[in-house]
Amino acid sequence: MPGHALHAELAAIRALVSHGLAEVTSANEIGQFWVRSACARLAAIDTLLTEAAGAGAATGVRALSLGAASIGAVLLTASLARASVAGMVAAAALILVALAGVTPWAAHRARMVAGRRRLARLPAPAVPWHTPVRPGLISVPEELQQARVRLVSAVLRHVGADRWTAPELRLAARTDPVTRRLAGADLLLCQALDCLERYLFDISGKSDVSGKEEMSLSGDATPLAGPVAPELARIRRELSTVILDAQCRDWVADRPDRVGFARLGQAGEAVNRAAGRYRRTTRPAPLAALPGSGRLLRARRRADGPARIDDRQLYTSLGRRLEACAAAARSDRSHQRRAAATDLEYALDWLAAAERELPRGRR
């Protein structure tokens, strides 16, 4: 898809999401948990769409960073005759640390500025099917449903018709910055739709007969063999892989179901919050990309098999591992790490909610 066509489509999607958010917030139900959660996700979509429109601007920032590194290397070499080895190593380390800290922030700012400029050049799109604001929220706004349809269409057209398979879409979502941000916006939109649908289900007065299947922390959880932080990192990677696979299958209608991967995404967010309570050393960006590139090459060669989101054993395994991590967090001396157990309780609840969306024959 040409750049101007993509920007026009993103502007139309932003308008739809904005109208849908306005209808939800003006329904006098903002105090409800599900409505508040949906509004938070709808508000975050705008940032991802803006970054997707300005994704190319980050290339210039990285080029400037490489240029600054080259200049620093030249200056370092010029002063080699006068500086000691320790001074040379300290200067090189200082340059690398400064670049590693400044480049991501500068790239994000450049994407946001470029995205706002590109989207501001376009006229504000009209929303002919916009419905008037109602005194109460009685249905999911049609604008949000239309935004999801147009967002998936924009992703597929951006990737290209010759890559409309789940493996190719997974690869594009991992390697292409535009596709990666559009996938993140689609996940947030699906989560917002699910939150609104759950709120409407609650106020309808219907009983959820499957509520007995909620996972909860058990007192006899299997002790965790090892530190909590690496185990949470492995769970995060596994959840990310399953979510992206299910999302790409939904895009190509191989397994059309936006609710399952949206709820797994909620579980992944809770795990991310729990993992953020553990201090970990981070690898520099070039070193962190090395194992990721190997996984991408293996993913491209691997044949596409059954959807892992339908694997009943996946939920059992993740539930046991999350329970073990929560039990270890509860016994930690740090109050910050003990709070991670609450985040993992939310992750278990969302995991059970996603499991209930499995087809009846696969439970």
List the helices and strands and how they pair.
Blueprint: H1 3-25, H2 33-53, H3 57-78, H4 85-120, H5 142-159, H6 166-175, H7 177-203, H8 228-251, H9 258-276, H10 285-301, H11 312-330, H12 335-338, H13 340-355
Q: What oligomeric state best describes the polypeptide chains here? A: single chain
Mean pLDDT: 79
- Strand portion, in percent? under 5%
Q: What is the helical fraction, as a range of percent?
A: over 70%
**Can you tell me the overall shape?**
globular
| Radius of gyration using CA atoms only | 23 Å
Largest sheet: none
Low-confidence stretches: 209-213, 281-290
Number of strands: 0
List the keywords:
363 residues, mainly alpha, 2 domains, 0% strand
Task: Give a summary of the structure in a few sentences.
With 363 residues, this protein is mostly helical.
Write up this protein:
The chain crosses the membrane at residues 63-81, 87-107. Keywords: Membrane, Transmembrane, Transmembrane helix. With 363 residues, the chain is mainly α. The protein folds into two domains: 3-200, no CATH class; 211-362, no CATH class. The chain is 71% helix and 0% strand. It is built from 13 helices and no strands. The protein has helices at residues 3-25, 33-53, 57-78, 85-120, 142-159, 166-175, 177-203, 228-251, 258-276, 285-301, 312-330, 335-338, 340-355. Mean pLDDT is 79; it is low at 209-213 and 281-290.
